[in-house]
Each structure stands twice: as C-alpha cells, then as structure tokens.
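#struct-pred

JT: dropping the chains for the assembly here, can someone run the whole complex?
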Amino acid sequence: MQYAVIGLPLVAALLALLPVPHLPRAAAIASGVVQALLGVALAAGYSSPAATYEWAGPLARVQLQAEGFAATLITLGGVLGAVGAAASRRVPHERAYFALWSLLQAALGGVLLARDLVLFFVMWEAMLVPLAFLMWLWGSHDARGATLRFLLYTMAGSAFLLAGIVSLVVARESSDLALLAARPLGEVSQTLLAAFFVAGFAVKLPLFPFHAWLPRAYAAAPLPVTIVLSGIVAKTAAYGVVAICLPLFPNGMARLAPALVALAAVGALYGAILATRQRDLRTLIAYASLSHLNVIALAVFTGTAAASQAALVASVSHGLEIAALFLLAGILAQRAGGWSLGGLGGVAQSAPVLAAFTALAIVVTIGVPGTSGFAGEILVLAAAYARFPGAATVTALVMVLSAVYGLGLIRRAFHGPSLVTVRDLDRRERILIAPLLVAALALGVAPWIVSDRMPVPPPGRAEVAP
Amino acid sequence: MPTVAYLLLGALLFSLGAAGIVLRTNALSMLIAVELMLNAVNLTFVAASRHFHATDGVAVAFFVIAVAAAEVAVGLAIVIDLARRHTVVDVDQASELKG
Amino acid sequence: MVLPPLGGAILLALCGGALGRRAHGIIGTGAIALSFAAAIAVLSGGAPTGRATLGPWLPLPGGDLTLALDKYGAPLMLMVAGVSALIALYSIGYLAHDRGTQRYFAALDLFVFAMLLIVLADNLLLLFAGWELVGLCSYLLIGHWRERPAAAAAAMKAFVVNRVGDVAFVVGLLAVLVERGTLSLEGQGAHSALASVLLLIGALAKSAQLPLHIWLPDAMEGPTPVSALIHAATMVTAGVVLLLRLGPSLSPEALGLASVLGAVTALGAAAAALVQTDLKRVLAWSTISQIGLMFVGAGIGAAFAALFHLLAHAFFKAALFLGAGSVMHGTDDEQDLRRLGGIGRRMRWTAAAFAAGAVGLAALPPGAGFFSKEAIAAAAADRPLLLAAVLLTALLSALYAARLVAFVVLAPAGSPQAERAHESTPVMLVPLAALGLAALSFGALVALGVIPLGRHDAHAPAWLAPVSVVVALAGAAFGLVRFRAGPARDVAAGPLRSAAASGFGVDAFLVTGGRRTLATLGIALESTAERTLDAMLDLVAVLVTRAARLVRRTQNGFVRSYEALLLAGAALLLAYWTLGVR
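RK: done, full complex below.
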C-alpha cells in the first residue's frame, strides 16, 4: 500500500502528459484524494508489510513504512495536493504543470515513507526539482530571483544534511533508520551530527534566522504552489526532526535544544511583528505563516513526546488554515484588482460570504478555542512550558500580535465604508474552501482525531517536571 | 654497464622532454618532446627488464612504441588543422577552448 | 442546557440567509429561552452537584469536556440565561429595521453558549474556551454595524486588549498545569503567586479594570442591547466569576492586588462617569466602576457580597442600558446628554424603568444596589482605606446616577429630537419593565432570604447601614437638585474635568504607547534584521560564485599551463609514493 502512495502520483504525472483536455487536472486531484485516503488508512494501522528492496547494496534500501506522524502528514499532503490542483484552473501549459505537480506529490510521499537515510535524502532532494520548476516557470514577476534564492539556500542546508548523513552511515555502516536508532553514538558526535542534520532541516522549516527566502518565495510562486510549499513541504522538515534527529541523536538534540527553542520563540514573535506591518496580502500571510511555522519548530525542538504530538496537531491545523487563507486572499486579490491592502475597503458589504469565510479562516489562524488553531497552539505551549517556560511565555505573546494582524486584515479589507465592489464567492469556490474550514473546526472540537495518532505515554513525574 | 646509468639517462631524457613541452610554443616541437619522453620511458623499461632478467619490460616497450605511433598520427593531424587555421602553429594562440 | 444556544447559533449561521428577519429573532431568542427553561428544570429537581462529561477534548490532564455546578453556578446560570433571553427579546424590536439580524442573533446565541461555559466549566481549559469565545462574540457584536469605521476600530480594540489578558491567562493556566499536574477545577489546592497573578491579569482585561479597561468605553459603538448584555451583565462580569470560582485557591498576593486595583478603578471610573456627555459612555464608566467594587469584594474574600452585587448590577445596569436604548430609539439615536431631556413626560414607561435602574445604581433603598453595596461595605469594614474608597464611590455613583436621571428625564428637552420623542414598542418595553422591576426588588428579596444566595457575612458595625443610606441619599439629592435644570448647570469645565473625562489619560497612553512600540519594533526589525538575513542569503551566493571564479582560472585554454599542472601533479604523486608510504 505504501507503494501506491508514491506510485499513484507518478501515474497521474504520466497521465498528465496525454493531450486529453481536463485530464491532467483531474488526474492530479484524484491522486491527491486517493493519497489522502491512503494516509488515513496508514494512520489507522493498515499497511502492507515493509518490503525491502536493496538498491545500492546494504547501504541504501527502498524500505517504505509510515506510522502516526508520517501517515497523518501524508493525509494532509494528499488533501492539500488535491485542493491546490483544484485551484489551478486555466494555467498555461497545463500538461507540464500537472505532471510536475504530481511528481512533487510523489516525492512528498517518498520523503514521508522512507525508512532509510539515503532514500530519505534522495526523496528530500527530489522534492526540490518539480518545486523549483513550478516556481520558476509559473511564478509571477520575481519568480527567477525568488526561486534561485530558495534553491540556493535550501541546497546549502542540504549540503550539511548530506555531510551528516554520510558520516553517520560510514560510522555505523548502515543507513537503516531503525538500526541507527538502536545504536546511538557518543555524546559529542551526537551533538555535532545533530547540528549538521538540523542545519539541513532548519532552512526548510524555516527556523529563524534561516527564513530569508520565505517572503519572496511565497509572493512569487503561483498560489497553489505556495499552499503546498507552506502547508506540507515545510512540515516535512518538522517530520525530519521528529523522525530522524530525535530518535537518532537524543542526547545531541537535548544539548542543542535550548538554543534552538530560543530561536524558534524569537522567530515566532518576529514573524508576527513583521506581519503587523505588511500592507500586501501575500506578504502578510507569508509572515503569519512564518510565525506559525516557528511555533511548530518550537514544538519539535522541545523534544518530548508530548511536544511532538503537539507539533503534529499544529502542523495539520496550519496546513488547513494557510490553504484557506491563501485561496481566499487569492480570490479577493483577483477581484479587487491587486494584492495591496490599500486598495481594499468595505468588501463585506458586496461580498458577505467571502467576508464570513475569511473571518472564519482568520479566527482559526489566531487560535480561538473551538478551532484547530487553538488546539495546536495550546498543546505546543503546554508541552514547551514544561521544559522551557521562558520560551513558551515569549511565544504566547504571539497571541496578541496575531489578533492585531489578523483582525487588522479583516478591518482594512472588509469593514468600513465600501470602497471596492467585489463579486462574492460562487458555489464552486465555496465547495472548495468550506471543507478546509469545516475540518479546522472539527479538529478544534475533537483534536484527539489527530493527536491519538501519536500517543503520549502517561506522564510519570519526570515527564512534567523539567 | 651498471643499470643505474641507463636509468639516469632515461631520467635525463624524460626531464628534457618534460621541459620541452612546457617551454616550447611550436606544436611540432612539442610533439618531438613528447616522443623524447616516450622513448625515455622505453629505455627505462628495457633497462629494468634486463636488470631483472624478465621479459615484462620489453613487452611494455612494444606497447609504448605502438601507442607513440598512433599518437603521432593523431597529433600531426591536429597540427595540420591548426596550421590551416592560424598559419603559424603556435600553441599559445590556440586558446579558444577556454572557460 | 448549554446546548440550545449553540444550536441556535449554528442554525442561524448556516441557513439564516433563507429565513426572514422575524425568524432570526425568534430562533435567537427562543434558543436562549430554552436554556433558561432547562436551567429551571434542572434546579427545581433538587440542586445537583454532580459533573457531566461529554467526552475528551484536548490530550492534556484535566482537559475534558466536563461541566459541573458549583455553588455559584446556579444563580449565575439563571441570571445569564434569563437576562440574555430578555435582551434578545428586546433586540427584536431594537433591530427591527436592521439588515444584519442573521449575524446578530447567531453571535448572540454563540455568546450565551460561551458565557454558560465560563460559568459551568469543570476545568480551566474549557473555561478558557468560553472566555475567548465571549471575546470573539463581543468583537462580532461590537462591530455589528461594520460599515462604520468607529465600530470596526472599537471591536478590534476590544479583542486585542482582551487578548493581552488572555495571554496572561494562558501562561497562568500552564503554570497551574505544571505545578499541580491537572487543569481540573475540582478539589483545588492553592495556586502559586505567579499563576494567581497571571490569572488575575486575565480577569482584569475581561472585566475592564485598570489598566486594561480601555476597551469598554469605545465598545459603546455597538448596538445598545449588546452593551446591555455583554458590557453590563455578563461578559465583563466574567472576571469576577473567575475570581469567585477560583476563590480560595488564589494566592493572597493576587487577591490583595485584586482588591486594590478594584478600589482604584472604582473611584477613577466613577469620577469619569460624572463628566461624560454621552449617555452610553456614562453607563460604560459606571460599569467599570461597579465591577471595581466587585473586585474589592472578591479580593477580600467576601464572595457572597461580590456575587450579590454582580447579580444586582446585572439587573439595574441592564435596565439602564435598555432604557437608554429605548430613549435613543425614540429620539432618532440622540446620545448626547446635553441634547436630551424631557423624557419623563414623553416616554413614561421608559422613564420609569430608567429611574428604577438609576435607583439601583445609586444604591438607594429599596433598590438592589443598596443591599449589595451594603454587603461589600460591610465586608470591608475592617479595612479603613478600602471602606473609604467604597463609600466615596457610592457617593459618586449616586451623584452621576442622579445627573443621568436629571438630564434625561427631568430637564427640559434640549433638542428637536428630544421633543419629538415617542415611546417604544411593547417588544422592547416588556423586557425593560421586567428588568426595572428586578432592579427594585431583587435586593430586598435576597436580604429577606426569599432568594437563597448563600451565607451572609453578618458582622458589620452598626453605624455602617445608616451611613450608607445617608451617603446615597445625599449624593442623589444633591445631584437631582443641581442638575435638574439641565446641562447648563453641569459640572464645571476645567483641567480636572477634562482629565476625568478621558479616563485620566490611561487610554491614550496605552494605545499610543502600544502602537508606537509595535511600529518602532516593526520598522527596526524590517530594516535591520530582514536586510541582514537577506544579505546572509546573498552571502552564500557570493561565496559560491567567488570560489567558482577562482577555480575557473585554470580553464584558460593554454595548453602549456595544462601541461605544467599535469607535471606538477605527477611530481607530487611521485613524491608521496616514494617518500610518504612507509
């Protein structure tokens, strides 16, 4: 079954090349939906036995397996892939577009399923190729510069990751994740290698201060690509930390944790502060996303089981809310003639449904209880507070700032006298966006749907007290 | 004669040839220098073969001669092409393959 | 019983568009009334003290969907549901010509649901959920007339200030979790000073106490029934509810801070109320002041007194607000006190209810306010400073209450609109009358024991009761006499008056300060940090290109350089093999 997760998108990519109208997009949407369903099945525990196929001798095996964290992310990836594909109407050269899109989906599946370090790295890099093409060729005016910076920065990080992987594999003569976890290295080596691995993941997360590529990339890339980039690709970095760094280098990560957690807390605050200053819809959402991603980073670097669980909930929530936000913002910008907030005003009077949907998306983003945003946030804060109360308190301040930029967005765009008349959401758009918001609400009321995928052992005294 | 003498002569010839290819700018002169190096190597192989009373060195010398002949053929073809383009066969001027 | 309003909200949100305006009102009010009926049904079957769990919620210890009825739950539940139902009924009339009734009643129902959560939640997490949700509904309702920039700004201000308190609440909640291992509210032990103070800060924001009170006066931009419900009877009392429910577990530092801040707020706000020219703003500052008194009561451990005053205030303040709404409705939305007047003659019912509310506010017997303020004063009897503050506030309250009645009811009409005032429809008058009645009778009923409310701390010095009566009467009499002629005889203008009117500058200070800090930070970060990080990124590129250029010099097309390099390399290898290998 795991093979289908990767195989199906590959089939969709091939189908996309056929000159049948509407087929590419339909195939992409279908493969996304099926991928999501497979993810649910995997999360529920059904999976084919982990077949092993030796690829480059004992060092690189194609071993695919996924549980809890990875499986849930596969579901999220499938959902976002389908949504993004559905939102990509009327793209030029759609065959190439959707072929690349499906390749990206396949690579995503591969990253999340790999149980072998070398395979993981191959898939990790494989994600970049279709992503870069999509950004460069279908992006807007700044596409070239933004893509180059994104690529350059990411690959610099990957260089560190590769160095770390190679040294580890050579030292232990195996690249199998399970085996490596069972035989940890000495503390100094662990810390060093952990630093290398984290460097690779830090750029993708993106951990402050390695986020410089983000605002330009989010603004230049086509909207559906941004959704996937922010919603799931960033989460693969979080997955990398949780599934690779933490089990393989427990002591090393513990030594690095205070510094990393501090960076994440600063990053969350930083993103939020800058978001309040943005006058362009896209960059505002980009910085808001940066803030939330750093909150997720805070969780993964805290390192406890509860923190990883919190990271999962927060990741799913962020994926849903960012997709909804970007879609709505895209619709608004398209109809109001621009991304600038200055050109908007009083849209609620001409498009009340759009206003309502956006308000709901913002409510999820700023973490009002009853939404998944709150569930993620509070779980992260609770888990982080147990180990790093200072960082958790600093991160809590983000709650105020998110209200400022979130409600500020609503006020500037929707409230006040009507300056711009905008056509309201049509049925197709409502059908596309509503499930995202409904899922966010459902997850807010019943977060155990996701958090049970990563059960936390009941805390002994040691778990809660630092 | 002690084998060392042959080895020394071979080394001397080899160095002369090496200096030749670096110092000479005329392509034909470089080819001649290369021939010098190859023959120096031949001399060394044969001397070693005689010293160890084995036939391996001589066998290798045969290969070297064959390779040298082939290389001269190709080299002269390149020199003729160069001559056609630049009139003067100066290696320093043929630096278009840069990058 | 919390579910009907939630159901109403969802129903309205999803299908409300299709139904007519009347249906909105009926569903909205009906849902709340159902809740009230359910509450009565539950209680009349004997007061249950059990807890009911709906299911798990968040994977944190104590984070389930559990409701429980503690000793404050019953009276609060009844008050919230009852007053909300009355106000919803009133809204039907008030918003008869409004286009956004679907949004309004949906938000209203959601609000009642959330408020009931605060009252009935069995753990801090669920309580916080209700806490934030009332904040959200407050935002939605204050900004109901969203085409008005002032309303939109006020709504955002309310939410953001509340959020500041919420941050403190959350961190306090986390501290409790770490210290005691669970968030459940049953059988609580003592919380640490840190956690208690943090939770207190949360309460300060929600209940509009110093220094987080700045959102409440601006919140008057919302429709008047909203002000009545959210900013008089329920949401702003949430902070007091929190203090009551956590009561003995809070640290003495936090409780002391609560009473001190409450006293200062009560005095300052009363002074501000005295000099406002806008009808609703007087009531807003008055609310801040009265809640300050409740905080004093809660801080010194007089839970019964605080609860009593909370309920009494709910009745008389709601009556005042609804009366004000009725006045505004009848005078074409005139809110300026200087231009009102003469309502007594033209809108009799409204005036009567309004006066009843004022009696409660001024703490004149037999109004509800008299008995409840009495209770707080009694509890503070052994703390002279606090007692003085309470009594002084009572005097000021009577003064401004009289001023209100004088300007609105007794004074001659101050504008053409006031002269043309017409009485409101029965839909609005019935709830108004009910609340006015409650304002007058509630106090006596409790004091006489007809309504069981809890233990009455009965060790007040004998001189207190007569002194309170004198204070109230004096204030009221002086106010009526002086202000009867109308705004011409208002409080003299001057630096003291303008200072008081703006709330002694706290609002301006905090808002401007906050905005400037954020802007400065933002600009600083943008110009320095972002640029540096961008440069870091470019650095990577620059390094790579420089290195590449360096290496590129070997590819120069000169055969001789290639040869030289070749020979050099060969020589090195040779040296390594002959010399290096041992």
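JT: nice. Residues 3-91 of chain B form a domain with the Helix Hairpins fold (CATH 1.10.287.3510). The longest helix of chain B spans residues 56-86.
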